Amino acid sequence: MSESSLFLTQLADHGAVLVTVQSTRGSTPREAGAWMAVFSGTTVGTVGGGHLEFEATAHARALLQHGCGELELRYTLGPSLGQCCGGEVVLHFERVGAPDVGRLGQRLAGGLTPVALFGGGHVGRAVVQVLLNLPMDLTWIDSRDEIFPPDLSSQVRCEHSDPVQAAVADLVPQSRVLIMSFSHAEDLDIVAACLSRQRKHGDLPYIGLIGSKTKWASFRQRLQARGFTEAELAQVTCPIGVPGITDKRPQVIAVSVAAQILQVFG
Predict the structure, then answer these.
(1) What are φ and ψ of residue 138, in 5° steps?
(2) Whole-model pTM above 0.90?
(3) Could you tell me if 249 and 127 lie in one domain?
(4) First-last CA distance in the chain
């Protein structure tokens, strides 16, 4: 379960104070928009750890208990807090409860990066398990019936599409696309559909195809025969994953792919 889902689930039954990094200056442990939810006995998320988080948690709990206190505080991360970052952080404190679940769900979801995963095999399942813990909005697509696990988190939108490449047209703009279907023929059609969409809209920042350099060499020839240029083909990443990681186990591939997607968040 992601941090935002865990927060909203607990918020449905217990009040909390939502602590958000409002702004930063200089070297700081987290960026503007980072958040932490403080309940009476636990916290979800982080605004940077260390003494900063200790002070913020104490202030949030006092606010939660007494209902009064500063709603915005400025912290200098120097000797006074025992942290070496040396920058400055402004934190915003907001009391929230069950009536705020819907509003906060939309707000937190707005910071998620859309990812479209084609393929429900072993690697696909491993990738889903890794991405569920990251700030990503995941759509999982396959052409086969009953391929998705029955106990899958509600955070993942599962979509059956036959032909599978038809789903490309409906992807959320700025989706990062991962292609790892059970069939090379399907993979090729999905890549072609992504490149066609790129030609029209240019709104898919990452198109990743699982496979070897040999597979990509074969796909290049076939895609060139379909009329795609070298510049268009250069938009496809194959093999996928962080260079230098050669382990083929699904869990390792999943971590490597997730890291690569994080590199193209911007």
Answers:
(1) -105, 130
(2) no
(3) yes
(4) 24
